[in-house]
Amino acid sequence: MIQSVNYGIVGLPNVGKSTIFSAITSAPVETANYPFCTISPNVGVVEVPDSRLDRIHTLIPAAKCIPAITEFVDIAGLVKGSSKGEGLGNQFLSTIRNVGILVHVVRCFADDDVIHVNSEVNPAADIEVLNTELALADLQSVEKRLVKNARQVKVADIAIRREAAVMRDLLKRAAAHLGDGGPVRSMRLTAEEAMRLNALSLITAKTQIYVCNVGEEGIAGNSKMVQSVMSIADEEDAKVVLLCGKLESDIAALDDEQEKALFLKESGMGESSLSRLIKTAYGSLDLRTFFTTGAAATRAWTFKNGATAPQCAGVVHGDFERGFIKAEVYHCEDLFELGTESAVKSAGKLRVEGKEYRVRDGDVVHFKFNI
User: Fold this and answer.
1) How many domains does the chain have?
2) CB contact set of 229 (below 8 Å; sequence gap of 6+)
3) Higher pLDDT residue, 162 or 36?
């Protein structure tokens, strides 16, 4: 129904990936002042922050309030030569292929007590190393596919030969682009070409978000290191999130939500940078949220932007999609304005929608079905 809702945290060793992962997931992971302290990929399920869910739950109380969730994977640091097996590279490239989005953490702080794998903190150079290694890993995949494709061009079946010829030209274009260090996502591909390449699970075809991990003094984001990342992201049309891993780790360690809110207010942050990261990652997969209400639970559900009402019904339960009859829908903003569902109905804001309706972000939906 929806594509993989997970995000791989990547970067060079000792840039703060595991610290950020631990703060996001509130899960303890191994961190140390030496490269490759993350051996096995750590996986954490994370709630997607959404103030709308809390407001709906306040107005329509239920036994439970269940947020949408997503998954973050902390992947060991890659180094120059990872695509050829240096460091722990090959062991984790397969893990990277299975995530939905790359969250590329870049070190933008100076600290003599934290070793840099290349002995110098240089965000632009770090980005080039990782992006190059991922491009080279993809180039290997494309070259292997070209060898296989060459055999298909010679088979007797005309349809297979024609498809192989089309694929050969596309693979050659991709190989040339990757050989120049360019990611597949920057190629000008038609929808049909993109689908053909999807079968290869190419890493550089994935959307990438840059995370500038700054020191506490760099929260404002005006350092030369941050600006260098911003410049690269602008060229790639990529999103950037600025955060201080150490500070976010301290915030995550606070057990009391009011204490967290007070800390954020006094620091002038207003919202945790990790919350912004989770929202940015969620939105970058073109995912949206609809809500359901009832005595048992008020719940947020994830769906792919553009999904129809039956498809969203299937997110809740497969039987709902198979037996879909109709959906009673209103937008959460109508509830916030009018205060109750009965008021929403009286105002004529509750609609009955059929199979062709495309659910909007923020819709509150009651599915009607028969099986």
Assistant:
1) 2
2) 106, 108, 123, 124, 127, 210, 212, 240
3) 162
What's the sign of the alpha-carbon dihedral 217, 221, 224, 229?
positive
pTM to 2 decimal places = 0.81
Is the per-residue pLDDT at 47 higher than 90? no
d(CA 322, CA 264): 46
Cβ burial 53-78 (10 Å sphere, 16+ → b, else e): beebbebbebeeebbbebbbbbbbbb
Count other Cβ atoms within 10 Å, centred on residue 23.
25
- Same-domain pairing of 12 and 64: yes
Q: Assess if residue 100 is contained within a domain.
A: yes
Say if residue 213 is in the same domain as residue 338.
no
SS (H, E, C) 351-362: EEECCCCECCCC
For the chain, what's the residue count?
371
Beta bridge partners of 368: 326
Residue type, 179: G
Interatomic CA distance for residues 300 and 287, integer angstroms: 12
Q: Within a 13 Å sphere around the CA of 51, how many CA atoms are in the beta-carbon half?
A: 5
Choice among 171-180, 260-269, 288-297, 337-346 with the minimum mean pLDDT = 260-269
CA atoms within 13 A on the CB side of 83: 17
Token pair 């609609």 in the structure block, residue: 351
Pairing mode of beta strands 324-331, 297-304: unpaired
Domain that holds residue 348: 306-369
122's CB contacts (< 8 A; 6+ apart) are none
180 shares its domain with 274: yes
Mean pLDDT along residues 159-185: 93
Pair 278, 310 in one domain? no
